[in-house]
Amino acid sequence: MGAASSADLSPALEQTLGDAIMEQGRRFPSYINDADVSQYLLGLGRRLSQASSGADVTVFGVRDPSINAFALPGGYVGINSGLIVAADNESQLASVVAHEIAHVYQRHVARGMTQSTKSRNIALASIAGALLAALAGSGDLAMGVAAFGQAAAVDQQLGFSRQAEQEADRAGFEMLTKAGFDPAGMVQMFSKLENAARLNRGEGGGAYASTHPLSIQRMSDIENRARGMSAGRHQDSDAFWFVRSKLRVLQARDSGSARNAESVLRQEASQYEGVRRAAAWYGLAYLAWERKAYDEVAQALRQAGAQGVQSPPMASLEIDLAMARNQVEQARQIADRALARWPENQGVGLAAVEALLKNNETSAALKQLDNLIERWPEEPRFYQLQAQAFERLGQPVKARRAMADYYEKMGALAAAVVQLQQARGLSNDFYEQSELDVRIRELQDRVRTNRELLEQFR
């Protein structure tokens, strides 16, 4: 189905458009820039995409309590925190992610964008206009908000056809089962989404149901497919439950929603055993951390640990707590143990680096950052910490180059150019200046290319 759109929006142009949207979107206030959440969602997306032998997609989180998910051009999939919190098991969440990845692989977004209806052209033009405004100046945050706000609503404005939705269901279902998830998860999630839509219909309907209409035909099709398969034996990962609890807290934007989150977490802590109880206590610890109630954090973490469960998010919060109490050596010891146990965990690595910096072990922190950047070169926070470490060591050129990398990953290309220009002015090395000149031109060319692309849609 995707081939029909290639003449109007080629895969290369689609990718560039998606990259331009995300460069601004990463600075959108509701974009979740959290190591635990990001690593989990990227890993889930990678597991599903590999099961379908497709290219990797970038799955990211959005802080929004509504039950929703959306696909953007260029292989980006956004998942609202409310969808993850609403999922009763990992297979339910994976079913929606798989469905959105199927939209990406079938190029449904590109097809919708190139439909020759006035409303769709206006929707695309509004996205392009917001991005152009951001590119024209210093990458003002308000413009980033406008750009991502438009982009996040793209599939609501464009809409997918009934045929495209059913195709995404079938491809997503196959992806789900090949990846080892319970096929019943999609049926369960469809039922949950339909119930949510029915309850909210008087208030405008459920967010996901309004953008991905759940017809009787679609639901029956998936039920029949699941009925013909043996029941899955998927074991939910610990990470799912801990990320779910964390997001319940992160999406609580006012005192009322925070009290509701606490009530639900306490109910789960009393109702369940093992990992789910530990995750609920971790959520309560994180809620107390947000309030800076450090004694409550420590108490809740002890309750979580008493369940016989240890997890990277718990260790990261323990490190942060020790640093907040100025127990630097204790933080260092916790970090050493956590790194030895979970060397591939991004959140633990980040907390460990911050502990090293607070303990004035700057060289050790830089060494650890080199390892983290090698594993996760797209994570902006590592470059920001690297810049701080170089500044401490009296290496301002390296510090500004690292900050340029940070701004580039965040999508603030103009700010990245300024950092590189400052670095060039501080350097007396001809070869280093030449390298910086090349890098500056590359970034300026990217801004120009993005502008030329977006001008096509105005």
From TrEMBL:
Report if keyword Zinc is assigned: yes
Q: Which is an annotated Pfam family here? A: TPR_19
Q: Which InterPro entries match?
A: Mito/Outer_Membr_Metalloprot, Peptidase_M48, TPR-like_helical_dom_sf
Superkingdom assignment: Bacteria
Coiled-coil positions are 314-341
Q: What keywords would UniProt list here?
A: Coiled coil, Hydrolase, Metal-binding, Metalloprotease, Protease, Zinc
For the Peptidase M48 domain, which residue ranges apply? Answer: 57-225
Q: Which cofactor does it need?
A: Zn(2+)
Keyword Signal attributed: no
Protein name as it appears in the record: Peptidase
Question: Which organism was this protein described from?
Answer: Neopusillimonas maritima
